[in-house]
Known about the structure:
Elements: H1 2-48, H2 55-70, H3 72-75, E1 89-91, H4 94-97, H5 99-114, H6 121-142, E2 143-145
Antiparallel strand pairs: 1-2
Helix pairs in contact: 1-2, 1-6, 2-5, 5-6
Amino acid sequence: MKRVLLAAAVVAAGASAVMAQQQVAVQQQNLMKAQARSMYGVLGKMVKGDTPFDKAAADAALKALADDVAKIPTVFATNPKQDVKDATYGSSRKIWQNKADFDNKVPYVTKAIADAKFTDAASLKVAFDAIEAKCTNCHDTYRVKLK
């Protein structure tokens, strides 16, 4: 009986660890999706002309983006060792193999966001491209396509 209870406890502990790791991966994915909503759902649509230029909405999206980017080192402190179930993109294990380099990329994105000055869709595109270049610099190394 003790062996059965011990085995059940080990299985439960393992399941809890897997669930905790999945929660970390989901938190990381949610942060990146929030950034994508600001970057592409708001700013990108204005840059492409899919939505009219709206300075207040662009400013709010940039603020949200800046707030979210600042969270990257903390949210990616833990390696979940698994990807979000059915996700299209995931975090490369390279993040935790070279965490200092990963964290060092954040200030460049933050600076590009802070430097974003625009008064119309054309100047927003210049700012958007500068921010996107810094984001892509990290994504090229630390993001993997899962499917």
